[in-house]
Amino acid sequence: MKLFFSDASPYARKCLVTAHEKGLADQIEIERINPYESEFRDLNPLGKIPCLILAEDTGLFDSFVICDYLDRLGTGPALIPATGALRDQVLRLHAIGQGITDAALNLRSQVMRDAKLDTPLPKDWYVDRQWTAIQKSCILLDREIETLKGALDLGQISVATALGYLDLRFPESAWRHHAPLLADWYAALIERPSLQATMPKG
Ligand SMILES: N[C@@H](CCC(=O)N[C@@H](CS)C(=O)NCC(=O)O)C(=O)O
C-alpha cells in the first residue's frame, strides 16, 4: 500500500498514527506530495490527500475511510467500536477533531490565498466563525474530558492530530487557556510512540 502524504497534513497524520497503532506502518510506503502542485485526480478526483493506493491501483479517501480500512486490516484492539453507545461516542469525538481540523485548514487556506493574490481578504465574519468553532470545540472537549480517557480510539487520535495542527500553524492560538484539562490530556497522549513518530512539520 502507498499513502499519498504530507508532513503537515493533519488528515494524513491521523491515518499514519492509525497505521502505527494497528501494526501496519511497515506495510505502507509513504509518498510525500504537495496536493496543490501534483496531479493525481485519476486516483482521487478531489485532488486531496491523504489518499491510500491499494494494490489494484484504487485510491481510497478520505481520512476517515482510510482509518476505518486500516482499523479492520490491522491487529490489536479496534479503534472504531463496531456497535453501541461507545461507537457513537467515538464517532462524535472524531467529528469534533475533524471539525477543528477543517476550521484550522480554512484559516490556513485564507492565509495561502492572501499570499498568492495581492488582495488580502478582510478579516471578516468567516475568520471569526472558524476561530469560534475551534474555541467552542476545545471548551466542549475540556468539559467532557472523561470521554477522551480510556483505551485509545479514533476519536482521541482525531482530536490529538487536530490540536497538533493548531500548534503547527497557529502557535499563538489560546486553546490551552480555554481548555486546561484538554491541554493536560494532550500533553500526556502525544508521548505515545505513534504520535511522536508523526509529529507534523512544514
Ligand atoms: N475531508 C478530507 C480533507 C482532506 C484535505 O483537505 N487535505 C488537504 C491537505 S491537509 C488537501 O489535500 N487539500 C488540497 C485541496 O483542497 O485542493 C479528509 O478527511 O481526508
Automatic annotation (TrEMBL):
<feature type="domain" description="GST N-terminal">
    <location>
        <begin position="1"/>
        <end position="78"/>
    </location>
</feature>
<dbReference type="InterPro" id="IPR050983">
    <property type="entry name" value="GST_Omega/HSP26"/>
</dbReference>
<dbReference type="GO" id="GO:0005737">
    <property type="term" value="C:cytoplasm"/>
</dbReference>
<dbReference type="GO" id="GO:0016740">
    <property type="term" value="F:transferase activity"/>
</dbReference>
<dbReference type="Pfam" id="PF13409">
    <property type="entry name" value="GST_N_2"/>
</dbReference>
<dbReference type="InterPro" id="IPR036249">
    <property type="entry name" value="Thioredoxin-like_sf"/>
</dbReference>
<dbReference type="Pfam" id="PF13410">
    <property type="entry name" value="GST_C_2"/>
</dbReference>
<protein>
    <submittedName>
        <fullName>Glutathione S-transferase</fullName>
    </submittedName>
</protein>
<dbReference type="InterPro" id="IPR004045">
    <property type="entry name" value="Glutathione_S-Trfase_N"/>
</dbReference>
<keyword id="KW-0808">Transferase</keyword>
<dbReference type="InterPro" id="IPR036282">
    <property type="entry name" value="Glutathione-S-Trfase_C_sf"/>
</dbReference>
